[in-house]
Amino acid sequence: MSLIESTATELLGQLQSGRTTAVEIAAACLKQIDRHDAKIKAFLRVDRDGALARAAEIDARRKAGKPVGRLGGLPVAVKDLLCTKGQRTTCGSRMLENFRPPYDATVIAKLRAADAVLIGRTNMDEFAMGGSNENSAFGLTHNPWDLTRIPGGSSGGAAASLAASMVPLSVGSDTGGSVRQPAGFCGVLGMKPTYGRVSRYGLVAFASSLDQIGPLGRSAEDIALLLEVIAGGDPLDSTSVDRPVPKYTESIARPLENLRIGLVREHFGEGLDAEVEAAVREATRVYQSLGATVSELSMPHGKYAVATYYIIAPCEASSNLARYDGAHYGHRTDEKAMAVELAAQRKALQQTGDSRKLEALDNPLIRMYRRTRAEGFGAEVKRRIMIGTYALSAGYYDAYYLKALKVRRLIRQDYDRAFEQVDLIAGPVAPTPAFEIGEKVDDPLAMYLLDLYTASANLAGIAGMSIPCGLSTGGLPIGLQLQAPPFEEERLLRAAHMFQQATDWHTRRPELS
Amino acid sequence: MSISREEVEKVSLLGRLLLGPGELEKMTSQMGQILDYMHLLSEVDTENVEPMAHALDLTNVLRDDTPGVSLPRDEALAAAPHRDDECFLVPAVLGDP
Questions:
Q1: Fewer beta carbons below 10 Å: N end or C end of chain B?
Q2: What is the ipTM of this complex?
């Protein structure tokens, strides 16, 4: 098997035995990117020289018999929202087009310490808001399985980079399904760890009570490897949880005995594509053949997940994104043009004698904020700021935000009850396979409804994972979602590995022209 | 429609956004649609349900009160669009325009 087709775990074995070098792997990945990324556009930027220099340095250390980190020279792609000192971190936004953070995110620091080769930055929906990558300010990413389709989002570039064999490992983030859904659409694996399992320090914030950084890869073993490196408590993130990180890579090959899998009755209703349902049901039969018992259960509040999520996430976003004020960093409007505009508006109002409007005219500081943000943010980000600002404003807080927080509790209680009966919940990742580019751009609500099966895991703070489990008749990947109680990532990984020992969906790759 | 154009305009000021006439029109219709959908939640009985702002039972995390290294001022100012040696600069807030 060629270097680019191998899993990270296989490559690590080859590196350790001296059959290949980090430079050879990085060069093979760069070559694949050169060949195919003009069409797929998974990457916003590729650090060719930096990657090769880093790989050579790790090779030299290994050759000299000196210690080498856990990822020992493996290339890793990073979603463009993890702060990286001195290097552009755009979040897919004009607002941060030229932003160079003054520090490293904890996950970036951990990747460096583990001797990962940071090969490039992947495309994403602006500020991680979206499920198709169509909200990136820097262009579309195409699904490697069908270039006319979206790769999913918001970690669309991360999933596409793996599906197109450009890298063995990728890091994304998941606020309402943003790792699991693109992984499902691109036929790779992706995990949203338990809230608090991975430090969010240096992750550009979208919705702080929901955001979680997660690994993407092409095998369960690879996800285990990457999670082991990035997980752990962090004094710089007070919401990270300080408990030991299990050796996921050591336990992964141990099958789960007497595994109880639950199917949520409400997941198999209206709107679920027949082929997706068939693939998910077939996957549960695979688990049955491996000794698992499968039962149905009800999670009555699941149908409220989208409404709950699309109140809470925009509320948190409107607050988090208040920091983009044109004063501290990021885009700032042209002040001269702004002064001219304001003067003209003032003059016009003075002439018409509209004293009420004249009184309400923005002062220059407010107008600087407003123009800066109007220019720097795209349509979806503006929509979410507006919804969040509205839902938090006087008179509406109780009806929207507080109500959503209460339903959130009920969704969590559904999970707590479900996990008394079963060890894992299995179901679809998304209602359909990847859709056509442009299909839903003018219908934000239709786009939101795609998060029906994924958003509840973020609301509840539990762990979830997406695993390839089939292909549609149109040749598009279908994902199986597994969900586990908080801090049971090990259970997810062992279950995913069991499935991959019995099936080969995770080894399928698109034909790239 | 659950939100008016005037309300949308007011919210755009609160959110420090500036929407052009076309954008305002579209935003009003899209927000109306989205907020209508949110009313689905009104059928849920949330009497006596504690709101859940966070997935974890958060507790204060304290560190020893010993000074550490902070971001040097020059680095903190480095990405500012408009600055002098010590401060972020913004348009004048006080006085007549």
A1: N
A2: 0.95
